[in-house]
Specification:
By secondary structure, this protein is mainly alpha-helical. The chain has one domain: Monooxygenase. The protein is 72% helix and 0% strand. It has 4 helices and no strands. Helix 1 packs parallel to helix 4, helix 2 runs parallel beside helix 4 and helix 3 packs antiparallel against helix 4. The longest helix is centred in the last third of the chain and has 33 residues. The N and C termini lie far apart (76 Å). The C terminus is likely disordered.
Amino acid sequence: MNLDLTLFFGSLMSISFALCFAPQIYTMYKNKSSRDVALGTVILQICGNIGGLGLAISTNGNIWLYINYGVGLMMALSLLFFWKLFRLNICHANKNGGPNHSKSVIHAS
């Protein structure tokens, strides 16, 4: 395969996959809520990136694999950190009578 195409597709893959959770992390931080993020997704992402790094190391993978899985793992761990931080905030607010996100029902008399 052409070296220029390899570099182009390798960098596109690495940058895209490594940063795919950046918008979610930003949204969680901005809204101070992890309510809409499934913990299972985060755990699977962490496991996948650990597996990818292990594969890249064991097969002497190219630099794009190391960048992809290394930065991806850091992003997934950041997502887990913010998920946990804001999940604690939600639980703490609920225990202390904080905002309730359920809809109110008004009864007419």
